[in-house]
Write a structure and sequence with these properties.
By secondary structure, the protein is an alpha/beta fold. The chain has eleven helices and nine strands. It is 35% helix and 19% strand. It is elongated, with a radius of gyration of 20 Å.
Length: 256
């Protein structure tokens, strides 16, 4: 099966790496394992041997047909992961997500996981190294941005190991990394304020970083009610200087 560029397909072909990835998958008991984009099934067969009731979601109908032929016991479903109904997939059980994320839709997939109201407890996902570094970035670094804050509010991200571009077919132009996301039982954003709207919080974060060279006094002026000024502890700072928790405080202050 030839990889399709329009789907961002890069298939794993190194058995040692495949084994290392599968060994990183350690879901607690009674979890529903879901694989995103199995492709040719590089890790799927090994996962299926450990988790017989796992579900695989694949958009490429060629890959679906191949998986059904080679792994007849696999519950593989054709569909776009961006349209995934996590509640239906969970079957009332906590979810454990595994996948090699296509480079061209990595960020939308990540936001879909972060925004899910279903009990996703952990995800082991492969992505471009540059994106992985953004997930774990600290304030006052150039990698720190919207994705850093959103991820760290919902989960604890860890880069498990780097992955060479030479283990893929075709070889991508960049290096990759395997990342573990351990989702918080209670997202930081909900602490002490169940009424803080996630869309409002995301709007504050996005607006601040869209003009990251400006101070928050200026970058957030469109969100500040007439006659209201930001407190001094925020007004003179730039977005990259605030921790994820400080963005929650800021969003509460700016809440309509």
């Amino acid at each position: 099966m030839k990889p399709l560029k329009r789907l961002g397909q890069h298939f794993l072909r190194d058995p040692n790496l495949i084994d290392r990835i599968v060994r990183s998958v350690q879901p607690p008991d009674h979890h529903q394992v879901v694989e995103i984009g199995p492709g040719r099934g590089a890790i799927t067969g090994l996962l299926l041997a450990r988790f017989p009731d796992m579900i695989a979601i694949e958009v490429d109908e060629r890959a679906v047909a191949e998986l059904r032929a080679t792994l007849p016991d696999l519950d593989v479903r054709q569909g776009d992961i961006l349209d995934a109904e996590w509640r239906a997939l969970s079957g009332g059980r906590p979810l454990y997500v595994v996948g090699n994320l296509p480079y061209n839709i990595t960020t939308p997939i990540l936001f879909g996981l972060l925004d899910s109201t279903e009990p996703i407890t952990e995800a082991i996902v492969m992505m471009q190294l540059e994106v992985a570094r953004r997930l774990v970035a600290s304030p006052r670094t150039k990698e720190y941005g919207i994705l850093s804050v959103a991820t760290q509010l919902a989960a604890e991200p860890t880069i498990l190991f780097r992955i060479s571009r030479h283990v893929f077919d075709p070889k991508p132009a960049v290096e990759s990394a395997l990342v573990r996301l351990r989702f918080r039982d209670k997202p930081v954003a909900t602490h002490g304020d169940a009424d803080l709207s996630p869309p409002h919080l995301r709007a504050v974060i996005r607006t601040a970083f869209n003009q990251r060279r400006k101070t928050l006094r200026n970058s957030l002026s469109s969100l500040t009610a007439e006659g209201i000024e930001l407190p001094a502890r925020w007004a003179g700072k730039r977005a990259e200087e605030l921790s994820p928790e400080e963005f929650v405080e800021l969003a509460r202050f700016l809440k309509p």
